[in-house]
Amino acid sequence: MVISREEIMKILEEVKDPEIPVISIYDLGILRDVRVNEDDVEVIITPTYTGCPAMLEIQKDINNQLKKEGINNFRVTTVLSPAWSTDFMTEEGKAKLMEYGISPPNPSDENDIECPHCHSHNTKMLSQFGSTACKALYKCNDCQEPFYYFKCH
Ligand SMILES: [Zn+2]
Fold it and tell me: DSSP labels for 18-66?
C-alpha cells in the first residue's frame, strides 16, 4: 500500500463516537493501531462495553470513512485483550469531553467529580445510571446544572 500509517490514523480521526460526536475513536481508546501491509490495511480496534450497540455503528463508520478516502483493501480486526478501559482515553479526549459538558473519567478519585460547566468539585450524584450504562447523572451544587459523568471502567 502506498499510504502511510499516519495518513490512515488521520482519516480515522474523523470517526467519532456515535453518542458523543466530539470525541474520536482514537481519543476514546477504541482505535488501538493501524498496520499498513503490502496489500492491505489492518485497523485494530478494541470494543468498549460488551454488547455496546455503538460498536456496530463504529465499525460501519470505519468502513465508510476508509472507502470514502478510496481505501478498499482493509480489514478491521477486533482484539479483546488487553480489555478496553477508560485509561486508554487520551488527555485530549478527556478535555473534549469536559468541553462538551460530560465530566471525564477520574480514576484517582471517583468521589471527586468536577462540574464541566463551572469546574466546581462540589457535586453530587443523582443517579448511578444515565442515558447509557457508562454514564452517571450528577448535579452541581454550585451552578445547579445537571451533567453526566463518564464512569471509570
Ligand atoms: Zn457547576
Answer: SSSTTSBHHHHT-EEEEEE-SS-EEEEE--SSTT-THHHHHHHHHHHHH
Residues lying with their CB under 5 A of ligand 1, a single-atom ion: 115, 117-118, 120, 140, 142-143
Long-range Cβ contact pairs of 122-127 (< 8 A, separation 24 or more): 125/149
Rounded distance from Cα 14 to ligand 1 centre (Å): 30
Cell 470514502 sits on residue: 68
Would you say residue 69 has pLDDT above 90?
Answer: yes
* Domain, as residue range, for 105: 101-150
Q: Distance from the CA of 85 to the center of ligand 1, in angstroms? A: 27
CATH of the domain at 60: 3.30.300.130
Ligand 1 centroid vs 53 CA: distance in angstroms?
A: 31
Distance 20 CA to ligand 1 centre (A): 20
Q: Region 51-80: what's the mean pLDDT? A: 90
Distance CA 111, CA 105 (A): 11
